[in-house]
Specification:
The protein has one helix and five strands; from the N terminus they run E-E-E-H-E-E. The protein has about 80 residues and is α+β, with helices and mostly antiparallel strands.
């Protein structure tokens, strides 16, 4: 599993099942990652909790670690780094 660390520079909710997140140290140096769900209730709740954590981190300037596959950009978990 790969990890991308940085501030949430941008968060865009595209559909009910897809959200794009730009994570990186500066707005010009980011990696675009995706939070997605299959529409099932459990998956949607899990995805929504990650989106809320990312949005809260963004507004509070907290660094996050987004865990995703080595060859894809789908976020599987999020950690908020301590201050």
């Amino acid at each position: 599993m790969a990890e991308t660390t940085g501030l949430v520079q941008r968060l865009s909710i595209l559909t009910d099942t897809t959200t794009c997140v730009w994570v990186g140290p500066t707005p010009d140096n980011t990696e675009i990652l995706v939070v997605s769900n299959d529409g099932s209730t459990l998956d949607a709740v899990f995805a929504n909790s990650m989106i809320h954590a990312l949005a809260t981190s963004s507004t509070n300037y907290r660094e996050v670690v987004a865990v995703h596959g080595d060859s894809d950009a789908i976020i599987t978990s999020v950690r908020i780094e301590p201050i």
